[in-house]
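Quick start: what a row looks like.
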Amino acid sequence: MNKNLITIEWHSLVKDIIKNLWIVLLAAIMGYMGIFIASKSVYKPEYTSSAMLVVNSGTGTNNGYSSYAVSSEMANVLTNVFVQPAMKAKAAEFAGKDSFRGSVSAAVLSSTNFIEVSVTSDDPQNSYELLSAILEVYPEISENVFENAKISVLRLPSMATKPSNSSSYENRELIIGGCVTVALFAIVVLSIIRDTVKNEDSFENKIDAKLVGCIVHEKKSLTLKDKLKKKKRGLLIDSSCFVSLSFAESFSKIAAKIEYTRNEKGSRVYAISSVTENEGKSTCAANIALSLANRGHKVILIDLDCKKPALYKIFNQKYSENRELANLFNGKIKKEDFKFKKLNKKSLLLALNTKPYPEYNDWFSSRKVVSFVDDLKEYADFIIIDTAPFSADSSVTSVMGFADETMLVVRTDCVVAPAINDAVSLVEKVSKSFMGCILNDIYPKATPFFFSGNDQSIQYGHYGKYKGYGKYGKYGGYGKY
């Protein structure tokens, strides 16, 4: 088992991105606000006015190459002249200003005798006036450096119409895009390194338990009317027009393994739990019971999630005094008056609660629950118990104490692997026998050309000894039940 294995599961990745789009939006807003604040408090606009000069040698030489070389050398020297304090003082005096309020830069264009002179200040008018003054006074100073240098203005200065240092503001789309990219990158990295079970391979590498079976992902909002009303429909394998064949087959394989366990060990009571809520525990319990009933077994499904019962919603049942399990345990009705709910044409009986009951701990301490289950063993081939999650109720350990087998439902990308392993260790200590885990909500594997597929074998080939299920035919004669 490699607990440090990092698994990339595309459905999980896309789901995390969609779920955290608000973070991406917040990053974009923060980027925009940062630009706005910087532009108002930190950013100071600067305006640049520039002119182009050309330097020629006045030596009168007929050698063109020699003349060009001398001109280039003069241009390089003159770039230093334009930035000297004397030049700034002379230009400020000529422009009628107290000081040269700006900066001067001069550079020779590569491999030419052209000089670009620029003046930058916080006011476009000031930049233009100072550069114009420099162009007026530079002959007085340049003559002291090169008497034979001829400097001509190739491009006159113009007044700047926009700041020259506004790149950060003009590229706000780029900055906002960078913030969004960082946010998406963080979401992707956190999704990949999150230590959860994302698929079958991840389970095998991270969880120290047997894998009983895998349940493929199935949508709950199945009709347009349901989607508009945001209504969730209970996923039952008998609703053949609403569930896929692969979903029903997943439970059929688990039921086959349960049959084998009963044949080998005589186990009849199966408790189904999970680490936390919303892992599909109740849906799994309901469909396992249905799958066993479809195989001709007498099955009783009991809801002992006393804090938050859910089976009555899955089977669309309402409160009935003689069918409320709590009324039996609380002594409001006698044992002979309690009526199981039998599904039409199914050898499946339901013992459900339709609301929470805070006094449920007394049911376990007085052994009423244990006595009730023991009595049912005389009539049922299988008893499936839907318990509370570990994180919600400690009474689940009481159920595991008298159940013959216990299974944990693990939903993909829901609970971190260390928490699942801790739960597995606890189940192994308090239960009679830990059968293993059911991996729920597995998405199809991504394949080329945008098709999707899933290995429906789920390692079923390892259980070749299950091929002798014909001997279970004797259970088919329970129609009178």
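That is the whole record. Residues 61-65, 448-481 have pLDDT under 50 and may be disordered. DSSP finds 17 helices and 14 strands in the chain.
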